[in-house]
Each structure stands twice: as structure tokens, then as C-alpha cells.
Specification:
Shape: elongated
Largest sheet: 6 strands, mixed
Oligomer: single chain
Structural class: alpha+beta
Number of strands: 14
């Protein structure tokens, strides 16, 4: 067995690894820029001796004239990293007009370790990049660079990459990496820092095998902001090479291709992504504004066009269905993104969302193809898996839906809508207790119209009518707009179960008025059908059941098993409708 020797310096709970050029505390990397690390190394090598500012300048910038303020800045950043202060120094002492001295005893060690085979890595998480810019307002930029790096690594299908949503919960959290890795169920952690200065960005990245805390690779990159998309691919290639993953020819092409982008456009893009991830109307409006500015600054920015398309789809699907210009704008943006970059996964995701709308009559087979294409290009795009599962759910392919949702949640445990869709699928399977348990644990702040109405439906099936009524009443107080008429439609069901036909009919009229045109109105139409069925009014029930099916909700197994429709089962018109839906269902199974 070969023995590898490397120089390290130890003081207190810190380790300075000269070969890897990292500072660790209790085994965890403390992010430092290269110049700050070199300052630390110079001080610890000369522990107990005075190191003058001139010496630091000549060592760190041998051929360049820089001002002494650069040294002062490095010392300040170093003290911050060590938890030290100028007033009461534990490590770095300032000697006025002379220089600096490292006070704490340092042990220099040549550490010998046997060479090991590289551990197998099939999953990883990129932790939020530390913002070393000295400006808290640049926090969004550090978050954006985290997401950019995740996007680069996610292009590689050989490993699972945890999504941005799930890793951002660790921003500013100081936990052992092994614990974070266990919580995210990953083999490795990528962490580092971002320092933005004007039009330049410096990124330091480390790759750590979390179970053994073994540092596999680290590198520092200094780039112009216009080159960040090239940089994301460069880092992704470096990681795959280090852990010996063989890229497919298609992956090689994707990682080799990245056009420069306008710096200001990229800044708007990052701001837009920040707001796009929140499905609330005000955030949606801001996201559209930011993406509009991005593509105005750089008309060749394909990713910005794709995200603009997605934001516009959400606008008319969830918030303003009467404003048809958003659908037209989404179409233009999708086509522009695909023209610029035909193999952009997010563009195919956006096209799938655009197709799956009332005006396009929910062409499930075409949408399935788009989402599959998106996942072929980016196997770690959890939202494409979530949306593909949503289509499967609506056409009654429950096993396929749950399979995709399990993959989506494995990549992004914080994908609330994916978790909601698991509960919805269980509800459609008539597994009411299981669905209720899952709904109960979901936060309500993301898309409350969807997340908040299915739990009362599960309660109704379990005979807990009062609980369902109280929950719907509270939801209408919190969200009186009731987009899609989902809450009011569920209230109609409660009235029908109580034998109060007048209230049921009034609630139906209100639900239709509130919900017509919204992308998810087919769920309201289905609940109206159930309401009429419970009132033994077959004509209206079958009419609304057909309307739900025509509007994209062709869920044959639910229609076949829902006890709220039992009074229709002897009606020949219902039997005919079920035969047509079953025939479609059998076809969908052949393309799943």
C-alpha cells in the first residue's frame, strides 16, 4: 500500500490543509478566498513572529502593485472566519505600524495516509454557497450561483442531485456534513463560497465524501459574470472526472455547450428565479417583470425565455385566466427558448405546461412526450417528474404517478406540490386515511387553493363532515378569492350530504362563477357532478362528469370507484361514459 504524505498545520480545533488549500474546523470546511487562505498560511508558518504588511504584499501579490487596504481586508475576513476579534485577539494580533503575529501555538505535521480507492458516489447535494462579497444584499446572487451549479451537475444522469429547494434550508446552518448528508440521503456534499466584485465573480468549490469526511477535490475559479453558464458546466465536468463517472456523448455535448450571457440579464434572471419558486400572485408578477428585463437585455438568453414562459403559464392557469395575453406571451417565449437551445430541459418543461391547459384541451399524450424529453435532458429536474406525475394522476395511471413522485421527492424532499400530489393520488385511489395523513402534514403557504381543498374531501369520505366544513370555512376566510371555485364546490358536497339541496345549488352557482376558466376548474366540475349524484339528479351529474372529462380530468379509476357517484351506476348514460373513459385509459397505459 502506497503512503501519501501531506503538510498540514493544526491549532485548537482548526486544520490548515496545504495540499487541498482548505481550512477546516472540527472536520468542516470554512470557506476562504484564495488570497485569504494564503494570508492564513503565511501567518501560521511564521507563528510567534511578526509578519509585516510589506511581506504579505510581496508574497501574495509579487508582481502587482496593490494598496495596503487589501491586506487589512484579508485580515478582517480571516478573523471573521476564525471567530477572532481585533480588540481581544485569540489568534491574530495586530502590532501597530509593524504588522501581524499569529499568537496561538501551531503544530506542523506531515500526515501520512494510505491511498484509498475513490468512494462510490451516486448522489450529492450542493449546499448554499457562502456570500463573501461583504454585502448582505448580494445574498440572492450567492443563492443564484448555488442554483446555477446545481443545474450544471443535474445534467449528468449517473447521479442524483438534490434540488435547490431542499438544500436552501441549510443556509446559515452549522451542522456536521455527515448529518446533513444523512438527512438528504446523499453520498457527497459540494460546498463553497462566492465573492462578487463588480463584473467579476470568484467561486471556491470543495467536494467532500460525507460519511468519511474525505475531501476529494477543491478548486477556485475567477471568471467574468458573462461566463457563469460556461463555468457551471466546467465545474460539473470537474466533479464527474474526479469521481470517475463516464459521461454519455449527449451529456458531453450539453456540458461543452454554453454561450456567454449579458451580465445585467443574468442578474435579472437570478432575481426572477427567486420569485418564480413562490406560487403567489405578487411573486409571479415580479418574476415576469424580471424575466422580461433579462430577455430585453439579452435576447439570446434561452433559459430566461424558458422561465418567462413558465411564469406566464402560471399567471393565466392559476391567477388571471381571463387575460389571454399571458398564454400568447408564454407561447412566444417557449418557441424562442427552443429555437435558441433545442435541448434545454426547462424549455421542454415549459412547453409541456403550456400544452396542458384548457384552451389546448389537455393533450395528455403530447404533454407526456414533452416531460419525458425534459427528463431525458435533465434526469434531476424534479419539477418535470412532478408535472409528469400530475398528468398520470389525471388519466388514472396511479402507479406510474406515484413512481414519478417518489423520484421527485428523492431529488427534492421540499417539493411541497409533489408531496401533495402523492396525497391526491392516494385520495383518487380511495385510500382516504393515508391521503388524510399526508395532507395534514403539508404546509399551506404554497398554492393554497390546491393544497387546501382535498383534505376536506378526504374527511367527507371518512364521515367527518363537521371537520371538513370547519376547514373549508377557514380556507375561505384566509383565501376568499377561491380561485377555481374549489372550496365552494366542496361546500356544495357538504350541503348535498346534509340533504340541503337549496344550499347545494347555491354553492354550485357560486363555484361556477368563481372557477370558470381556471386551469384546475375540472376538479370543481367533478365535485359538482358528485353533488348532483348525491342529490339523485342524474341528468346534471352526468353532464358535469362529462364536462370534467372533456376539460382534461379523464380519471377512469376514480370515476369507477368513488362512492359519491354510486347512485349513477345503474344509469345507461353513465355506463356508456365509463366505457369510453376505460377505452382511453387502456390507451394511456400503452404510452405510459
Amino acid at each position: 500500500m502506497t503512503l501519501t504524505l501531506k503538510q498540514i498545520y493544526r491549532f485548537d480545533s482548526f486544520v490548515v490543509d496545504v495540499e487541498e488549500r482548505v481550512l477546516l474546523r472540527d472536520g468542516r470546511v470554512i470557506p476562504l478566498t484564495p488570497k485569504v487562505f494564503e494570508t492564513l498560511l503565511l501567518l501560521v508558518k511564521n507563528q510567534g513572529s511578526i509578519v509585516t504588511k510589506q511581506t504579505i504584499l510581496e508574497t501574495l501579490w509579487p508582481d502587482v502593485f496593490v494598496e495596503e487596504s487589501n491586506v487589512t481586508f484579508n485580515i478582517t475576513m480571516l478573523r471573521k472566519a476564525l471567530g477572532d476579534t481585533k480588540e481581544n485577539p485569540v489568534y491574530i494580533e495586530t502590532l501597530p505600524r509593524r504588522g501581524y503575529r499569529f499568537k496561538t501555538e501551531v503544530r506542523a505535521i506531515l500526515e501520512g495516509t494510505p491511498e484509498k480507492h475513490l468512494p462510490e458516489i451516486r448522489s450529492l447535494a450542493v449546499l448554499p454557497m457562502a456570500n463573501l462579497s461583504g454585502d448582505p444584499a448580494q445574498g440572492y446572487f450567492a443563492d443564484g450561483m448555488t442554483e446555477t451549479l446545481i443545474a450544471g451537475l443535474a445534467k449528468v444522469g449517473a447521479f442524483r442531485v438534490i434540488s435547490r429547494t431542499s438544500v436552501m434550508q441549510y443556509k446559515g446552518v452549522h451542522k456536521p456534513l455527515s448529518e446533513i448528508a444523512r438527512e438528504l440521503n446523499v453520498d457527497a456534499i459540494v460546498e463553497g463560497s462566492v465573492q462578487r466584485s463588480g463584473e467579476r465573480v470568484q467561486i471556491t468549490v470543495q467536494l467532500i465524501h460525507a460519511p468519511t469526511d474525505r475531501h476529494l477535490w477543491s478548486e477556485t475559479y475567477d471568471r467574468d459574470l458573462s461566463d457563469v453558464l460556461t463555468l457551471q458546466n466546467e465545474i460539473a465536468r470537474a466533479v464527474t472526472q474526479k469521481i470517475q463517472i463516464r459521461l454519455t456523448p449527449e451529456e458531453e455535448m450539453r456540458l461543452a455547450r454554453a454561450l456567454p450571457i449579458n451580465r445585467v440579464a443574468f442578474d435579472y434572471f437570478l432575481r426572477g428565479r427567486f420569485h418564480l419558486n413562490r406560487q403567489i400572485k405578487a411573486n409571479n408578477e415580479t418574476a415576469i417583470e424580471m424575466f422580461d428585463r433579462a430577455v430585453a437585455m439579452d435576447p439570446n438568453f434561452a433559459a430566461a425565455w424558458a422561465e418567462l414562459a413558465q411564469a406566464c403559464v402560471w399567471r393565466f392557469f392559476l391567477f388571471t385566466p381571463d387575460e389571454k395575453q399571458w398564454e400568447e406571451k408564454a407561447f412566444v417565449a417557449v418557441e424562442k427558448a427552443l429555437f435558441l437551445e433545442p435541448d434545454l430541459a426547462e424549455a421542454h418543461l415549459a412547453r409541456g405546461r403550456l400544452l396542458w391547459t384548457p384552451s389546448n384541451h389537455f393533450p395528455h399524450d403530447k404533454v407526456i412526450q414533452e416531460y419525458r424529453r425534459a427528463l431525458a435532458l435533465n434526469p434531476n429536474l424534479d419539477e418535470a417528474q412532478n408535472q409528469l406525475a400530475l398528468v398520470y394522476e389525471h388519466i388514472g395511471l396511479f402507479d406510474e404517478a406515484l413512481h414519478e413522485l417518489e423520484k421527485a421527492v428523492a431529488i427534492n424532499p421540499s417539493n411541497t406540490l409533489a408531496r401533495y400530489h402523492i396525497g391526491e393520488t392516494l385520495l383518487f385511489q380511495c385510500k382516504y386515511e393515508q391521503a388524510l395523513t399526508l395532507f395534514h402534514d403539508l404546509p399551506r403557504e404554497v398554492n393554497p387553493a390546491l393544497v387546501g381543498y382535498q383534505e376536506p374531501i378526504a374527511l367527507l369520505h371518512l364521515g367527518r363532515t363537521q371537520d371538513a366544513a370547519a376547514m373549508l370555512e377557514q380556507s375561505l376566510k384566509d383565501y376568499p378569492e377561491d380561485s377555481g371555485g374549489l372550496f365552494t364546490g366542496a361546500q356544495a358536497l357538504i350541503a348535498a350530504l346534509a340533504g340541503d339541496e337549496n344550499t347545494a345549488k347555491r354553492k354550485i352557482r357560486s363555484a361556477v362563477e368563481k372557477g370558470k376558466g381556471f386551469g384546475h376548474f375540472h376538479h370543481t366540475a367533478y365535485n359538482i357532478a358528485c353533488t348532483y349524484s348525491l342529490m339523485n339528479k342524474s341528468d346534471q351529474a352526468i353532464k358535469w362528469l362529462q364536462a370534467a372529462a372533456d376539460d382534461g380530468f379523464r380519471c377512469y379509476p376514480l370515476f369507477e370507484g368513488d362512492p359519491f357517484l354510486d347512485l349513477l351506476r345503474k344509469d345507461s348514460r353513465f355506463t356508456t361514459l365509463m366505457m369510453r373513459l376505460k377505452e382511453q385509459w387502456e390507451y394511456y397505459k400503452t404510452i405510459s
